[in-house]
Write a structure and sequence with these properties.
Elements: H1 2-19, H2 27-34, E1 40-46, H3 52-61, E2 74-80, H4 94-98, E3 103-107, E4 117-122, H5 125-132, H6 135-146, E5 150-156, H7 160-180, H8 188-192, E6 207-213, H9 220-227, H10 236-239, E7 243-248, E8 252-253, E9 257-259, H11 264-275, E10 289-290, H12 297-300, E11 309-312, E12 320-323, E13 336-338, H13 362-375, E14 376-377
Parallel strand pairs: 1-2, 5-6, 9-14
Antiparallel strand pairs: 1-3, 3-4, 5-7, 6-13, 7-8, 7-9, 8-10, 11-12
Helix pairs in contact: 1-13, 7-11
Amino acid sequence: MRKLTVAVSAAAAVVWTTALLACSVPVFRYAIEQWNPDLFALTVYHNGELTEPQRALLQRLRPAGIDAAFVGNLKVETVDLASTELARLDAGWLESVSSGAAWLVAQTPAKKGPPTEVFSAEFTPENVERLLGSPKRFAVIERLLRGESAVWVLLECGNQEADDAAAEVLTTELARLQETLKLPEIDEKDIQEGLLTLDPAELKIRFSLVRVARNDPAEQAFVSMLLATEPDLNDPEFRDQPMTLPIFGRGRSLYALIGKGINRDTIEDTCRFLSGACQCTVKAQNPGVDILTTVDWNLLVGSAPESLQLERESLTGPPQYLDIAPGSSVPTEQEERTISGRIDSTVPERIPATGLLGLGGFAVLVAAVSLSAARRVS
């Protein structure tokens, strides 16, 4: 009983402290307005001087100057094997680099634990393009820019019956929640302070679902990034179960629901957190891990959806464009299920405990353990 009292008191202290940093803007909108994505580390390993094509490709990844095109939330470095002690590295590609090839290795931002490798391949335009973007990842970005509250990515396990069942639960519950959840009433002070660039009347609760096969070669980097958002998502016990991760803001993955953890209660708790008032405006004290995107969010966020045209510069062909206008084409129904519906109005009465995840302290540890049990039921 004493332990429970201590935990409750600690939770109350966290809530009271973070209330000082709260605002009335819903989490999903505050995140896209205010939270710049963390930087992925991209290291190019080579042996001796880079070739001219390799130098040109490297320059495209880290352009300089006021007119330079935006590439992505990347920090790019080079390591020359000929002049660097790499005894600490135990990588299968070292032999390839020693024989003259260059190799790229991408790692997650160090903000959420030790960096994790998410992509490794020969340093070529084709492989760089595979790292920077993919059809499903670009579809997610497009929808977030259109104003969707969150895009739920379903990582399929390969068992069609289990994957279809998870998709059906998500489709049903997201449609229901779009009709029943209420948005916070926006405080005029938050608008005056620039925390919301949209007219509050334009804020809507909208969710959609994108299905991704874990073994899809085109989505290799995207899948690796999602599986790296938590330390154990690659564990064998989860490989044969469908997994879903809601992506919101500027490409921020919240957390994974796995197997039977994909259910009415966990989906509702997650959606309530994302659509509820932001309880702590400090990004680092909120749950979630960023993925790699190629969007200049600061340039595009706040623009009218009907005026946006998103360009993705291709390294191996002509530029690719996405029409962001309402009614534009989306992937086929076989690839995903899009939920339609809009809602507005007052603040939800209950903010889930998951909103405290990442705020520090013993209370958050207790909340994290409870959340893990709820969303990972096998």
